Amino acid sequence: MAAAAPFSFSIWMALLNNFTHDYANFGGTEIGILQSLREIPGFLAFTAVFVLLILREQVFAVLSLSLLGLGVALTGFFPSEYGLYFTTVVMSIGFHYFETIQMSLSLQWLPKEIAPKALGWQMSAKSVASIAAYGLVWLGLELLGLEFAWLYAIGGGVTVALALYIWAAFPRHDGHEVQHKKIILRKRYWLYYALTFMGGARRQIFVVFAGFLLVSKFGYSASEVAALYLINHLITSFVAPMLGSVISRFGERNALIFEYIGLIAVFLGYAYVAAPEVAAVLYVLDHLFFSFAIAQKSYLQKIADARDIAATSSVSFSINHIAAVVIPFLFGAFLWPISPAYVFVAGAIMAGISLILSFNVPRTPMPGNEVVVGHRSAPIAAE
Predict the structure, then answer these.
(1) 220 and 279 in contact (C-beta within 8 Å)?
(2) 366 in helix, strand or coil?
(3) What's the whole-model pTM score?
(4) CA 192, 196, 198, 199 torsion: positive or negative?
(5) Nearest-angstrom CA–CA distance, 142 and 138
(6) How far apart are CA 37 and CA 324, in angstroms?
(7) Which of 44, 182, 261, 332 shows the smallest number of beta carbons within 10 Å?
């Protein structure tokens, strides 16, 4: 499952900036609107807990995976502003529901002592699938001369086929604890919520504007963007499993602090970069630092009641997307036209706020020891 989703989504992402720029004549405003629309299903991810009243999590994940593949497969056949808005929303509904449930199942099924390593292997599987996807994009564009529509159709079709295989080949599993089927917000998770909110705001700078900078300012072609994505995932496929071991050894607090310091430097680099080669290096470093998101998931697993995982995963995805719904449009419409540098300075400020929050993560997080300063709960057994 971890490998099935990024195959089609990576093709969607690799072609998006060039497809919207060359075929639909998008500018900063249109790409901002599209990305804001893409994030609305993420904002509504909390509704996953209500779907779980009628569907098992594993079944829900497979159905969401199929919808993701369908949306990607249709993208190339609607090369217009409103056509792209429609297919993006379809793809995004499947993507965000799948990501929500996949995170929930992972944290339920994995023992805490091996979770960071196993999450690292999942990230590696995602990167291997993405490598295959970007390899297909490069091969299709450079050697076979395929149209964008065919690449989108192949990518989405592969994900749908994998979803059908997963449905048929694997038994149904349940988590160790029966999950709450309602929206849950707990005071003792406040730091996780804050880190999640800032991560969603900051992530948009990379997802929406970093790639668009490469195309609009430095003239990167679709095959060159695909090659950069390929480099990103080649590095991640090797680094992510080791990163999980590093987090297990040095702790979530230190990993998050390191991530946010690195991201501040990267975003400031974007703001003032003048050479396309330097921009490419920043793009690779940016992607690598986001691999440290493993630490945030591991932190939640260590402090959470096992029965809260599904509900908290869905709520956290919604929190992650509160800012994501508005930032692409606002930054694309108001900051980008003035100067792209303003967008990336704003990203550095967001990373700085995350850095301050990360110092409040305990060295040994657990129920009753969720934060260094602020609300500290009684152990779960006493609730």
Answers:
(1) no
(2) strand
(3) 0.73
(4) positive
(5) 6
(6) 10
(7) 182
